[in-house]
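Field reference: sequence -> structure
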Amino acid sequence: MLKRDLVDAVSEKMDGYLKKDVSQAIDIMLDSIAAALEEERRVEIRGFGSFSIRQRKARSTKNPRTGKIMHIPPRKTIHFTMSKSLKDPLVKKG
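Structure field:
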């Protein structure tokens, strides 16, 4: 699903709002989530899931082409955990 598909779906269910207003609201929501993650705060959306920042450790690996050892520095990644109410219907379909 693309952002425009999300805007279309929301604007269909919410009569009286223009697509540009719905798009702006979605932009504000996504910017707020990104800002919270930049501050390393956890973001929880009930019924959907939670986003958090995790620190990956530094590690060494071998380049398969050259065989040279490469050192990968520690870094931060975004972790998403699905809520139970989202996960259950997906597991039953699979």
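Note: The chain has two domains: 1-39, 41-94.
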